[in-house]
Amino acid sequence: MSKMRKSKLFKSVQTVALFATVAIPYAVFSNPVYAASNDNNVEWNGLFHDQGPVYDSAPEPTSTQSITLKFRTYKGDITSATIKYYDSGDSAFHTVPMSWLQNDATGIYDIWQGTLPASASAKYYRFQITDGTKTAWYNAAGISSTEPTSGDFYVLPGFKTPDWMKNGVMYQVFPDRFYNGDTTNDVQTGSYSYKGTPTEKKAWGASVYGDTGYDNNLVFFGGDLAGVSQKMSYIKQTLGANIVYLNPIFKAPSVHKYDTQDYMTVDPAFGSNTTLQNLSSTIHSTTNGPKGYLVLDGVFNHTGDAHQWFDKYNNYTSTTGAYESTSSPYSSYYNFSAWPNTYASFMGFDTLPKLNFGASGSTVRNVMYNNSTSVAKTYLSSPYSIDGWRLDAAQYADANGNNGSDATNHNIWTEFRNAVKSTNSNAAIFGEFWGNANPWTADGKQWDGATNFDGFTQPVSEWITGKDYSNNAASITASGFDSWLKGTRANYPTNVQQAMSNHLTNHDITRFGTRAGGDIWKTYLALFFQMTYVGTPTIYYGDEYGMQGGADPDNRRTFDWAQGSTANSAVALTQKLIGIRNQYPALRTGSFMTLQTDDINKIFSYGRFDNTNRIAVVLNNDSVTHSVTVPVNQMSVTNGSTLTDKITGTTYTVSNGSVTLNVQGHYGAILVQ
């Protein structure tokens, strides 16, 4: 369903405002030995730390692991470095003096290190960097001259996000519009009516809008789960994606299925429960490509008004719904202020009555996730064995009919995590949220990640297309793009950042291709960034070839299978980029370091690196080719080293700490050492 809304931003001790980071200039040094000294002045350009494997010995520590942290400065620039951390175990700050370890390979930088003690308590740390009388402070939010009060790095012992989510590429399918694999289950015109309006069957490729007298939400094209199974070779082999996320598939009257009528039954238009089992097996199989993973859309905040528990239309004769009688066994499942017509609903849609989760141990909590036969546990278990849940409208779940996002909401998702992880400890949980999802991810007790509208979708759209995700004029510079990304990364623990769902489009917003004005080169550039940035790349079906579409429902057009091969240049690029991402762990779980922003020429370059590879990604957001000099020595790449562009195969030799290359307009380069 369409949920175009502005989300409330929540603040905590670990949340940083979107643009609160300090802008740091990045320079290209002609002399690889920078002239730093103990002169009562900390050189900010030389400072770096993150929780990648080069600088953090245990990014996901257990309660018995100590953590050795490294910090980089210019050679000979500082007199001391200190880790200052807050320990939730004793609610106090502690300090750990760091010692000089070594020079980096270039001789430009010093590496300092210190160790945080092992314990089960959450910790939050920052660095104090001193040169004589001058001090700089460094944390995830950036560098400052005064001690920060937010934006510290997280240490959450025992909190782990699924490795397959961090390392995977997700493909989102809106089932009715992807592929018709079984014509016998197609909903025909007039197959049934909902609220007095009949269904409408349309030909593949036709307009998604209902003809006169028909409801857009009752327009069907015939796509189904058998179709997803039959196109698995396209998803897993042609593209290289290995995670399939399906929009809702359970029985419901609408085409979008966010108005659930029966959680325990796959909608007949999509197949059967057996079809779902077969699809899960097909995705998990290695005979059609690498092992895959299946994520379902969990619509747990509300049901549809046709659900048996509510039964507004008297569809069920064996039971009495909450709308039918105050003595219904399901009366407590909903919140009525004046029975029967005034009740809490999602976003005011009376077709979507909100569930009343009550207190811990309530019937709704048990039936949705606690019991062994609950919705969440049933599909995580055999024979379905799905691998995770995407939580729709998750911020709104509550016990009182209000808009959620309160203590009860967080208690619900804490219980949900415990229930899910007790069934499959490797299952993924990511919630829909359009702003800063810190309140659901920063304690390590609720979600593994979230839909990254705030930290990916919006800034990418504004930088590349000059439009926000609602197709309104909004643009930012390369340096503004970098600041936005840095600020939103700081909102989350590193392992959450790596499991955030990074989508250019989804089923609720205007298609990226439309925001780009149909310019496929802008889609090329967006794909470069999507496949090399921190997080889980999430391709909304058709975005890989630049599918067009306006606001809901136009963003849900049928897939054009004439474009579904590498004969399409954007699909071929998607395949190549995913292959590169899959080849190099540095692009998935490595450090992220800004190398260069050039607002005049619209250039943004950054490094992704681990202990094996140093990778420089160069993006040109201009319409013309530019010669770009990239300071790769910031990643400790030495003079005389070679880097190979994995797109063109061209090799470059590092000289004076940098490499120079030509990058086409709205295109990129991926330079690997």
TrEMBL record:
<dbReference type="Pfam" id="PF02903">
    <property type="entry name" value="Alpha-amylase_N"/>
</dbReference>
<dbReference type="InterPro" id="IPR017853">
    <property type="entry name" value="GH"/>
</dbReference>
<dbReference type="InterPro" id="IPR014756">
    <property type="entry name" value="Ig_E-set"/>
</dbReference>
<dbReference type="Pfam" id="PF00128">
    <property type="entry name" value="Alpha-amylase"/>
</dbReference>
<dbReference type="GO" id="GO:0016787">
    <property type="term" value="F:hydrolase activity"/>
</dbReference>
<keyword id="KW-0378">Hydrolase</keyword>
<dbReference type="InterPro" id="IPR013783">
    <property type="entry name" value="Ig-like_fold"/>
</dbReference>
<dbReference type="InterPro" id="IPR013780">
    <property type="entry name" value="Glyco_hydro_b"/>
</dbReference>
<feature type="domain" description="Glycosyl hydrolase family 13 catalytic">
    <location>
        <begin position="172"/>
        <end position="581"/>
    </location>
</feature>
<dbReference type="InterPro" id="IPR006047">
    <property type="entry name" value="GH13_cat_dom"/>
</dbReference>
<dbReference type="InterPro" id="IPR004185">
    <property type="entry name" value="Glyco_hydro_13_lg-like_dom"/>
</dbReference>
<protein>
    <submittedName>
        <fullName>Glycoside hydrolase family 13 protein</fullName>
    </submittedName>
</protein>
<keyword id="KW-0326">Glycosidase</keyword>
<feature type="signal peptide">
    <location>
        <begin position="1"/>
        <end position="35"/>
    </location>
</feature>
<keyword id="KW-0732">Signal</keyword>
